[in-house]
Amino acid sequence: MTLIVEFELDTPILRIASDAIDRIRLEEVYETESGDSKLLFCAFGSEFDRFESALADDPTVREFTGIEEALDRQLYSVVLTEQATERLTYPVAAEYDVSVLEIVISAETVVRARVPSREALSAYRERCLEKGVGFQVRRLYREQNVEAGRYGLTDPQHEALRLALEAGYFDVPRETTLSELATDLEVSSQALSARLRRGQASVLERALRDDPT
After folding, report:
1. Which value, to the nearest 10 degrees, does the dihedral of the CA atoms of residues 176, 102, 76, 202 take?
2. Pair (62, 122) in one structural domain
3. Is the CB of residue 159 less than 8 Å from the CB of residue 112?
4. How far is it, in rounded angstroms, from Cα 70 to Cα 63?
5. Are 183 and 116 found together in one domain?
6. What is the pTM of this model?
7. Rounded CA gap, 41 and 29, in Å?
8. Tally of CB atoms within 10 A around 169
9. 187 DSSP 8-state letter
10. Co-location of 122 and 154 in the same domain
11. Which strands sit side by side in the sheet containing 61-69, from one edge to the other?
């Protein structure tokens, strides 16, 4: 059984900006060739002019770009300041094999992750505290169904692949579009495309690796 933890991070990253929108859901974290940290996220709400003004005033944001617009959400790319990058916990999570499944920023920054053991969780928490990032566990439980993790898939990847398969996205000809699937999952088409590609790559990598031929 897999160990799942839900916790709050007391981090300044996007804190000012998040007060101007309903919620933010992080899609990806990148490191550019120049060493900058870049976030890709969906912002949900309606007052996007106000939100973009807050992004411009947020001390953790060096620059931002609006990528894709929808009625109730927009996709953004943000380059963090150097000080904000030092507070990122993603590198620490990777060090302890903590797989981040979801990050939602609203009144609090709430993270759901898969951890290999309680010892790894404790070590990860201590490192976050050393970085000056508060860490409070909300819930810790065993995941009964590990089917999603069997092929190295995250929960969002598993959900996206399952929905795409059931809706006929992989049929020839296709029975649905990427845009329609993205609307059902409340993500951008770009984010869903990346999620499907990574999920397919993970399944194929493990299938081919385990192939006795």
Report:
1. -60
2. yes
3. no
4. 21
5. no
6. 0.70
7. 9
8. 19
9. S
10. no
11. 61-69, 73-80, 37-44, 23-31, 99-105, 109-115, 2-10, 134-143
Task: Using DSSP, state whether 49 is helix, strand or coil.
Answer: helix
Long-range Cβ contact pairs of 183-189 (< 8 A, separation 24 or more): 183/70, 185/159, 185/160, 186/42, 186/44, 186/73, 187/25, 187/27, 187/42, 188/27, 188/42, 188/67, 188/68, 188/70, 188/73, 188/75, 189/68
pLDDT of residue 5: 94
How far CA 201 is from CA of 31, 143, 153, in Å, comes to: 21, 24, 10
* Three-state secondary-structure class, residue 108: coil
- Given 143, 162, 177, the domain boundary residue is 143
Confidence of residue 84 (pLDDT cuts 50, 70, 90): very high
- Check whether residue 62 and residue 131 sit in a common domain: yes
CA 43/CA 79 separation, integer angstroms: 16
Could you tell me how far CA 14 lies from the centroid of its own chain?
14
Contact 88, 127 (CB under 8 A): no
The domain of 189 spans 147-209
Same domain, 130 and 156: no
- State residue 1's pLDDT score: 56
Alpha-carbon distance of 77 to 41, in angstroms, equals 7
